[in-house]
Design a protein that fits this description.
Length: 473
């Protein structure tokens, strides 16, 4: 019997290694059984006659959305938030179950709104539940980074899809370190937020409206396309995107220092210095741009596409195009990464924030190959970054031709997480993220890599299976 000219090995490498030692070419197929207990649901959903067309519609809707920056205004005007109403990141949660950084951000937000004088006094306010309410940002066409707390006086970006008029929103980025979104609430945090409300927000509003009315609104989707080819991945690295935004708004910001309603030149200079020196400023535009695209796929019966991944510091939740507004949740995980100063894993809170909307749309951790330098912030190696992007293609429905990866021959980023593919392969979405301190008031302690809890995908799959129409008799 003649020796084989080649061998295909499926699964474990033990046999493949033995064959390779005999100088026989081996093709290795990375296969593993589906997630435990999902076989019946996978069979049902796979047989759903709507699935293929529904997913094609979902992909088309996501890829067909373009986000432009059309306004900046307070949340009270944009979302109708009233005194005592607070939005937060992630799926719904109560004060009793809220994590340290979320509590810290809520306490700081209460002081910002004048509900208490000292943030420490806000704990009793939230414990009583009198005159305060909590609701997810996602329930209000919005997203919030980290704790994601939004109060009525906070200024927000407004993004719009010109074809449909749909809009999404996000607060302005505070920078890094001891900031409200990481759960810090000291005097310096509140002072910065008040400056953002009194100076930065109105100045950006004037600049955005001037650019919108003269040259057309800033093309956020276009900036995302460019920044991915300039070393950003639009979650933890936004340097090129921030500077391109400043390029587009800078002249209008400078001109606002002239005329009868002029902004003080020193305020303009400080605002430009703040934006230019805050590499994460564009993140708060990337996030609502991704939400705007993914929301276009919501409500498509039979679609298995994930349209939101979000964390509140206690729970990690996903929403799926074919299951309406239902959340599928599990315990948020602590990221594995690099820590600031003397902080370590024991100091970190479990994953928190709506910023995983970037990965849901196909950037962030899914586009790590565009930003090899990101590994210096979140850990790992350049090889890991390349391998991550390749691996995410295995659980995606499509590629985004707008968002291409130069080092991978300009292949589009993996877009549209498919619940069935996650359950069938066991591959979990890769997220790169900041880490907040577990204790309220601490702020940022590091950055790293994290995945969702595995059991939320079988939960979503089961809900999809229950919605499969019965076969005609």
């Amino acid at each position: 019997m003649s020796a084989p000219t080649a061998v295909v090995n499926v699964g474990a490498d033990l046999l493949a290694d033995a064959v390779a030692d005999q100088a026989v070419p081996v093709s290795r197929v990375d296969w593993r059984p589906p997630m435990e207990g999902t076989e019946a649901d996978l069979a049902l959903v796979a047989a759903d006659p709507r699935r293929r067309t529904a997913n094609e519609r979902a992909v088309e809707a996501v890829l067909g959305t373009t986000a432009t920056l059309v306004d900046v205004a307070p949340a009270s005007e944009l979302l109708g938030l009233e005194r005592g109403q607070f939005l937060h990141a992630g799926p719904p949660i109560t004060w009793e179950r809220a994590s340290g950084p979320l509590r810290g951000a809520l306490m700081g937000g209460a002081a910002l709104e004048g509900l208490v004088e000292d943030p420490e006094d806000a704990a009793a306010l939230f414990e009583s539940g009198d005159s305060v309410s909590l609701d997810p940002c996602h329930h209000h066409d919005s997203v919030g980074p980290m704790a994601g707390v939004v109060t009525p006086s906070m200024w927000m970006f407004v993004l719009e899809d010109a074809a449909t008029g749909r809009r999404t929103h996000c607060t302005l980025n505070e920078g890094l370190g001891k900031v409200l979104r990481y759960g810090a609430y000291g005097p310096e945090v509140l002072q910065r937020l008040r400056w953002m409300g009194d100076v930065l927000g109105p100045l950006l509003q004037r600049a955005v409206r001037t650019v919108r009315d003269s040259a057309g609104p800033v093309d956020v989707t276009g900036i995302l396309t460019q920044m991915l080819q300039m070393g950003d991945e639009a979650h933890n690295r936004n340097r090129a995107g921030t500077l391109m935004l400043l390029r587009d708004l800078g002249p209008a910001m400078v001109l606002s220092s002239r005329g009868p309603d002029a902004t003080d030149a020193a305020d303009v200079a400080e605002a430009m210095r703040f934006v230019g020196g805050n590499d994460h400023f564009f993140l708060n535009l990337a996030m609502p741009a991704c939400k705007l695209a993914l929301d276009a796929a919501r409500g498509i019966d039979g679609s298995t596409m994930v349209v939101a991944m979000a964390r509140n510091g206690t729970d990690f939740g996903i929403q799926v195009a074919g299951t309406g507004d239902e959340w599928f949740t599990g315990p948020a995980q602590v990221a594995d990464g690099l820590f600031l100063g003397d902080y370590g894993p024991d100091d970190a809170n479990p994953d928190i924030g709506d910023s995983a909307i970037t990965e849901t749309a196909g950037i962030g951790g899914f586009a790590m190959a565009t930003a090899p330098a990101i590994v210096r912030l979140v850990g790992g190696s350049v090889g890991d970054a390349l391998a991550t992007t390749r691996r995410m293609h295995e659980i995606a429905l499509a590629e985004n031709p707008r968002w291409s990866v130069p080092v991978l021959e300009f292949q589009g980023t993996p877009t549209g997480i498919d619940v069935t593919k996650v359950c069938r392969t066991g591959i979990l979405p890769q997220i790169n993220t900041g880490m907040a301190g577990a204790v309220a008031g601490v702020g940022q302690v590091g950055a790293g890599l994290v995945t969702p809890p595995a059991d939320i995908f079988p939960k979503a799959l089961h809900a999809l299976a229950r919605r499969v129409p019965p076969s005609p008799s």
